[in-house]
Fold:
Amino acid sequence: MRIGFRTLKTAIGVSLSVLIAGQLGLLNFASAGILTLLCIQKTRRQSFNAIWERLLACLVAIAVSGLLFELVGYHALLFVLIFLILIPLCVKLRCTGGIASSSVIMMHIYVQKGLTLSFIGNELMIILIGLGMSLVVNLYMPGVERQIQELRRRIETRIENILRELAVYLKDGTSLWDGRELLELTALLEQARALGIQTTENDFSGRRSVFYTYYETRRKQVDILKTMMPLVSQVDARVEQGQRIGEFLDDLADHWNTIPGGRDYHERLRAIREYHRELPLPETREEFETRASLYAMANELERFILTLA
Structure:
């Protein structure tokens, strides 16, 4: 059985919260551990949001429940009215994630059957210890650099393979490729998106992470490749124009990820376009459709080159 890092942080954070609250002699000290448990999230930003929501909801709950219990009396049925007021307030204040946590504090007030300054101070200390401990343990997040590098390698290898397979078909007029890499890329990009969001939400600056920008670029490139595939399949026979684009794709597969800005690929593609324009007009429907597919393919290749870093 593998114990995840978040599980380890939760276990340590909850234990320390209960220990500290207990050592301070607080009433209901174990509840500090519950608050810590509810605030440990996957990313720093999610954790900060959870802490803020629970802090705000707990303060609202103390005010609402304390006031009603003191005015009406400590009756269990009064929870109906309390929640009818508390939940809409939390929705309005955008702290609905803290409703469960605030309920714990309300139960303390109900069991105490009396609201004094010392008891309010006790509850505030429980809240501060529970939420504070979750903040401390969430400041450290495990590095994902190795995971990022492996994901990049797998994505780029498959893009390179797709470019080569398209080149083979255009040069040879046939291919045994089953398109597996394209299906794998869809899954890999979803992983990259999740990791990009995670790295962004762990960054205190609030800016998008470099890896999320990387994901967006690769997603655009894969979308272009998906558009190119049916165009390539419409080139039924080995034609000289197709072979030129095939050779272009073959060379692009070797250097697409290492050439800043596509370097001279813009000029090479422009030369291929000029060559196509100088050819005699197509004489048959098949030749016309092939020429149209190759023209559309050149447009997509230009879009692909524009995405190169």
Observations:
- The longest helix spans residues 44-72.
- The chain has twelve helices and no strands.
- Residues 5-138 form one domain.
- The CA atoms of residues 225 and 242 lie 16 Å apart.
